[in-house]
C-alpha cells in the first residue's frame, strides 16, 4: 500500500504569518498529522497548489486530472478547500483503477480544536478500503463524488443525493 | 447510516485521577472526539467494558459477540486496548451482515499529541466503506481480522499476513 | 485581590472566520485561558477595543488611560497586539496606585502551540506581585514601561534599556 | 537575569508508559513549555528528584535547601507535586538573597488541557518581580510560604492566611 497525498491548499493548510497579520495558505500540515498518528504505510506528499478552493479554476482541475491520470499510483488523498471540493471531485471521476479521496477541514489543522486530524484519518482509511472511484471524506461521512454539496449556512457538509 | 460505538477501555480512554495519583480507565473520550470532528451522522455509544485489554478475557469476548449478534445494528466501531485487539477481532469474525471496526490508541486521547483522533476517524470511515467483516484500524492502516498482531517492541501495529 | 482584564485585540485574540476566509480579531480567548488554568481569584473582563495594535491610535490610548484613571481597580492585565505594546505602556505610565501589566502573544491563543497561555500566566503573577507601575510581560520576561521594543526581525521581544 | 529551574517530580511532570500501563514521573516537561513560550532569558534545568510529592521526605527537603544555599543563583523556579508543596516551601524559607517560586499542576503538562503552562508562566514572572523570599504560584495566585495549604476537596489551592 502506497498512498500519494496531493495538497491543493484550503483551510486545512491555513497558517498565520505574524509579519503580514493575516492567514495564508502555506506548507501543508499533513506531515505533522501523519507523524502524530504514527502511521506505518508508505506515502509521499505532492504539493500541487496553494489556493483557497474558491480560486481553483477549471484549468487547475484539468491539470490535476491529467497529473493523476499520468501518474503510476493507485491510492490518492487530496487535501482541498471545502467550498469547491465537490466540483473538483466531479472532474476527477472516471479515472480507471484509481481510488481518490478528497478531504479538508472547517478549521485549520494548527488550531487546538480542529476537524483536520479526524478527516485525514477518514480519508486514509477510505483510500485503502473503498473500491476505485472518487470520494469526499468530511463531517464523519464518506460520500461518492456527485453526492455532496457544502452547506455553508450550517457549516458542515450535507449529502444532496446519497444512495 | 447509523454507527454504534462500543467502548471497552484501553489506552484511548485512559484518564488521570488526582486523588489516586494514577491513570485509570474512565468515561470514554469518544464523545469529545466526535464533537470536535463535527460529525454529521447518527450514532450512539454503548459503554460495554472499562478494562485494560490485557484483562479482557474469553468470557468478556463471548459476551461482546453475543451482544453484537443480537443487536439490530449493522455498523460498529469498538474502542479497545491495543494489546489484545487482534484476539477480540478474531472472536467477532463471522457475524453476518455486520461491519465491525476495532480501534484504539498508543497514547491517551486526552494527551496533547495522540493517535486517538486519527484512529477513530479511520474507524468511522472503514465502518461505512468496508464490506461486512471485522477490521482493525491502527497505525494508518485497516487490517482484516486475523492479519495483525501488536508489535510491542516497535510500539506500532504490523501486519503478519496481509494480502 | 481583584484583577480587571482589559482586552484590546491583537494576535492573542485573533480568530478565524470561515465565511470571510481571513483572520479577524473576535471575542477574547481570555476566559478559556483562565478557566483552563483553574484560577481562583476574582476578576472581570472589559472588552475595550478589538484592533490590531498597528491600528490603535493616540485617541484610543488616551481613552484607555482615562478609563483606568477613573476606574476603582488597582490591578490590571491588558491584552494587546505586540507591535505597539510599548507605546501604549508609555501612555499608561504614572497612574498612581495602579499596577498595570500588558501582555499579548506572537501566535493566537487558539493555536495548538502558542505563547498566549504562558504570557497571561506571567501577567497575572506580575499584576499581583509587582509594585504599582506599568509593565510588559512577554518572551518570558517582565519589563517596566519604556524598556522594551518589539524586535520584529527576531520575532521576540528584547529589552533596550533594562535596569 | 538567570533563572535556575529545579524539578522534583509531581503531576506536572507525570508521563505515561505504555509498557507498564501506568503513569510515572519522567523527564520534565519544562523544556517543552519554555520552548513554546518563546522565552528569551537565560536559564538551566536541574533535575533534582523524580518523586510524587507525598514521597518527598525531610531528608529530601534538607538536601534541597542545602543545594540552594550553596548555589550561586538568585532566582529559582521549583516544579513540585501539589500535595506537599507548602511543606517544602516552609523548609526553604529564610535563604538570604534568593527568590524561590514553587509551582506545579493539577493535571499533567502533557494533557491537552492543563494548568501547567499558565502556572510555569506565573512562576517565571514571580521569580523576576518578587523580592527575595519563598513563594507558591498556583491557581492564578502567588502566595508567600506559610500562607497556603492544598484544598484537596476543592481541587485547588486556597490561602489560609494571606497578608
Number of DSSP strands of chain A?
A: 10
Low-pLDDT sequence parts of chain A: 17-22, 149-163
Q: Write the H/E string of chain A, N to C.
A: EEEHEHEHEHEEEE
Helix content of chain A: 25-40%
- Major β-sheet of chain A, in short? 6 strands, mixed
Number of helices of chain A: 4
Please indicate the percent range of residues of chain A in DSSP E strands (runs of 2 or more).
25-35%
Mean pLDDT of chain A: 85
Class by SSE composition of chain A: alpha/beta
Indicate the overall shape of chain A: globular
The whole-angstrom Rg of chain A is: 15 Å
How are the SSEs ordered, and which strands pair?
The structure is a homotetramer of 163-residue chains.
Chain A (H helix, E strand, L loop, with lengths): L1 E6 L6 E4 L4 E4 L4 H7 L5 E6 L10 H13 L4 E5 L5 H8 L6 E5 L12 H14 L3 E6 L2 E4 L3 E4 L4 E4 L4
Parallel strand pairs in A: 1-4, 1-5, 5-6, 6-7
Antiparallel strand pairs in A: 2-3, 7-8, 9-10
